[in-house]
# Entry
Amino acid sequence: MENRLFFTRPDKLKEDKKKLIAKINKEKEEIGYYSLPQQNIDNILEFSKKFDKGIENIVVLGIGGSSLGSKAIYEFLKPMKELNRKLFFFESTDPLNIANLLKQLDMAKTHFLIISKSGGTVETISIFKYIFASNQNRDSYTFVTDMDSNLDKFAKDLGSSIFYLPSNVGGRFSVLSVVGLLPLALCGVDIKALLKGADEVSESFFDDGKFKNMLLDKALFYAKNHTQYNINCIFAYSETLEYFTQWYVQLWGESLGKKQRHSSFNVGLTPIGLIGPKDQHSFLQLIMEGTRDKSVTFIKLKEFKHELYVPNITLKHLESLDILNGIAFHDLITMQCDSVIEALKDEKDVPLDEIILPCVDANSIGALMYYYELLTSLVGELIDVNTYNQPGVEAGKIILKEKLQSKTLSHFY
Amino acid sequence: MENRLFFTRPDKLKEDKKKLIAKINKEKEEIGYYSLPQQNIDNILEFSKKFDKGIENIVVLGIGGSSLGSKAIYEFLKPMKELNRKLFFFESTDPLNIANLLKQLDMAKTHFLIISKSGGTVETISIFKYIFASNQNRDSYTFVTDMDSNLDKFAKDLGSSIFYLPSNVGGRFSVLSVVGLLPLALCGVDIKALLKGADEVSESFFDDGKFKNMLLDKALFYAKNHTQYNINCIFAYSETLEYFTQWYVQLWGESLGKKQRHSSFNVGLTPIGLIGPKDQHSFLQLIMEGTRDKSVTFIKLKEFKHELYVPNITLKHLESLDILNGIAFHDLITMQCDSVIEALKDEKDVPLDEIILPCVDANSIGALMYYYELLTSLVGELIDVNTYNQPGVEAGKIILKEKLQSKTLSHFY
# Structure
């Protein structure tokens, strides 16, 4: 993985960088995600090796941090190789969606992973109840939860397999823990390579490698300019990265949208995920000519490993498009990305950088996700928020509980 | 369809409203989309009635305004009823994506709609060439383009069916023209009901109905506060509206992100599409506690027409969640939406409104899309931009052409 910054890197910030590194090193002792690339995964590998060969579908019952990470990796790798099993996600209480997903599943060949830190997630438990009502077989379920949570106790009574979340790893930073690794391993993803990719970025950052200054400079720029550039776009030139951008949206938005620790002012940076070239025909106009409130990070693939060419044919009246003839689609999409970057460079006041992934494999996505986790931690520290909590979502949950207790619906009925 | 505004409606703006209405009425004489709900669609109905019954797949080769609208409607209706045919979209030059889509299609049962105003769209024509190289059968293709465009000439020589775009209808405002109606009619969507829904909003707006003041107030609020609230979120509580939000993102972003007509300053409003309850676990924290730079429009469904209940069972250790027992998922998702709205109302400085759709049908989505087209026109007029062009995307296209001519790739190879 490479990263090139096209904006002017902050100058004379040696002291700021030193302080920031010191803080992150201290945080590292406490916050669990930092050391996930070095964890022992023998139990997960063992479990998936012995797993029932008759199971064709793995269904994750989980939402937000319990699903977005594994979905991002699964959808990234899926077009490249035939995976062992199909992975599904029940993430919504939308009845149309639930009914539609259930229709696709042969229950005898389906295994459910119930992933909930506390076991109290309304969406996850309501759907679990629905499924459990017609299938109480312990072997159909595996649980991923906190040790001694109520869900842990339930799972123990039921006699199903249980995996525990590591301590001090929040949902949106949990992709490289059992939360992501278990479903992915069951589908045949090389989770060792995934962690190795993350470990390379970790080592580079913490041992003075190339990513150290890169990440510090990028974080300092975003934090210093967060009131002007309050929107941070990722523009990924591959459809395979669509769910990665959704994972990024949660990571960035939920970590950085907070009341400041020392002032209680509302701050935040708004993440936007875009896919090229599709969104050149949608969002690009706004980036090129709209308000100067956006930074853009382009992500491109060095190798697509898929040989597909525009054929050498001339269409009458459309001869002007013969310039496309003989070109590999792979080169075309890269040229499209480069053309947009060049056009945007001329605008001067849109901060740009590009990330280049070597190819579509587990190593690349592991590196990319860990890179974004580190960037989030750095920016969170700099804009003075608690990166790891989400107090803002509690108010709605309390109101929902009241509504459920009184079964009061709004008045439009 | 209903719409309720929870922010303080702009006061004493009678004069502004009068002026705005006058301008829109003038624009209506020139800009084609306004009168699409009243168009004659006999030719489309006739064509789809006589269409080859052996065709099971309709593939749209088109991008941006040529695909997002029909995709939004197709994906909205799909979970509710069995449609006649499946609709696919080739929107990317990503080779992984193209190869993957082609694998799914039985070519003998597939018909292609090539949709391009000018016929010069790089993505559309490069993929068309790829498919055309192995199938030159005129009956496999139907073309939708401008009369006398090069693509029209090519299609005439080939002898395929051709439909023409109405004049003065830009891509992102074309969903209710043949661009959207043709693929949808071929899949069995009730396009008459679609237009009827749009016509109801049109009539209400232009004939002093309930939507007139609603839309004027909302547009005036967004325009007056566009520097503070530079981000406009749609939070839709149904998975079926996911592609509607993508259509909205193009409509809003590409129409409003412009240099101002009278100053050439960069202005714009940034659209964000969210799906509930999923994004309560992702983006909600940022709305609740982040910078006050966002407005939020909630969209909910009155009827899901799908009876699915949380069963009346108690799970040991999880008794606290028995409050979910017996509730319809339909009511649960509505309660989740209402709870978030209530929690946000307490924050005071986040402008909110809600739109209620009667149910998942063609009428509802037609109304909703026309409502958003009108809102976009109103805000564009107020922030002094040309709502209907997209000059910002040209620079990248010119650079791409140069690259294609010299076949120069960037230097990372």
Remarks:
- The radius of gyration of chain B is 23 Å.
- Chain B touches chain A through 125 residues (CB under 8 Å).
